[in-house]
Here is the input.
Amino acid sequence: MKTEQWVVNEHIEGVPNADKIYKKVIKTLDTNLRPSEMLLKTLYVSVDPYLHGICLDTPIGQHMGADSIMEVVEAGPKAMYKKGDLLQGFGGWQSYLVSDGEEKLWQTGTFPMVFPKYRKLNPSDYTDEYPITTSLGILGGPGMTAWGTMTKYFNVALGETVVISGASGAIGQIVGQLSKLAGARVVGTAGSAEKAEYLKSIGFDEVINYKEVCEPEAIQAALKAAAPDGIDKYFDSIGGDFTDAVFAQLALHSKVAICWQWATQVNQEYGGPRILPYIMFPRATIRGIYALEWFTEDNWSALIKEVGSHIKRGEITYHHDMHEGFDSIPTAYQSLFNNSDKNRGKVLVKL
Ligand SMILES: NC(=O)c1ccc[n+]([C@@H]2O[C@H](COP(=O)([O-])OP(=O)(O)OC[C@H]3O[C@@H](n4cnc5c(N)ncnc54)[C@H](OP(=O)(O)O)[C@@H]3O)[C@@H](O)[C@H]2O)c1
Here is the structure.
């Protein structure tokens, strides 16, 4: 049978140009399944900024990897799932695929990664308030990144100040709302007045528009006003000048979570001040976030139970920016970089 794929056509550093980077190909898929293999149909694909790094590490001509929801169309007699099951895993930008669903080591690039075994989605875990597509969003990887950081590292206490860069993104919004529920003062960054208003409507106390407040002194002043008692927890997806400013205002025993560094990875900014003196005096802790380490059955159950209950009670909200059709995947991905002012949450593609 035929499968459509978006393959990597060119490696381009910096802000991606999806039209040049990706090429659509139609390939013949060998559907003579081995006993442990399954034929899978992709239903939804997630596009995420971290695919920037994955793409640069993907050999030219190979299909683009990505998180997806897939349906088992056929299964070999020893396959781990059966026909009709819905799975979530790193299926990629392809309409059909053959896989055994096992954990895969990804070692083509800078850092060895292990893509977890495909997991079966239990439709009864999802409701009208949080449908199965949330398994790619608030109850999926982005949710686990936020909830894992909150529960296994931050442990935000009543009255603390939490600052979040990239707060209007899928993960930042969840960190902000969970912090608010923990009784914190929450400050975020966003790139437009509309997005700042949106974040305030979901509970953020202050939002700094990083496109208007961009000089180091101005960022320092805006942070001082927004977080007058210092910053107890900093969730960082962006890096750059904003992060440099945060380090100078860390409170005693503060914690910093490094989730991503947009400024370095995409904008290729490698300079910056020396931050270590700012760590010593407040006795701050900095930790890299690697959400895959929290992808366990127990954590998925806890995430669905805890965050699902918050959604049910109207305490946490989420949004999907849904694109339609296989051909729209690169456009949806590009929107993360050039059109993010239109996005309000998790960007997904329905095939
Ligand atoms: N460490 C891990 O385990 C892990 C796991 C998953 C994801 N991540 C990373 O976590 C980050 C957040 O993920 P996400 O799913 O929330 O992404 P997202 O939904 O695309 O949100 C990213 C946000 O960053 C803001 N942004 C874009 N360009 C910016 C720039 N030049 N300067 C400042 N802000 C900018 C955008 O907000 P505005 O429109 O307001 O500018 C956007 O809402 C991503 O970078 C992703 O790669 C890390």
In short: The radius of gyration is 21 Å. The chain is about 30% helix and 25% strand. The longest helix spans residues 297-312.
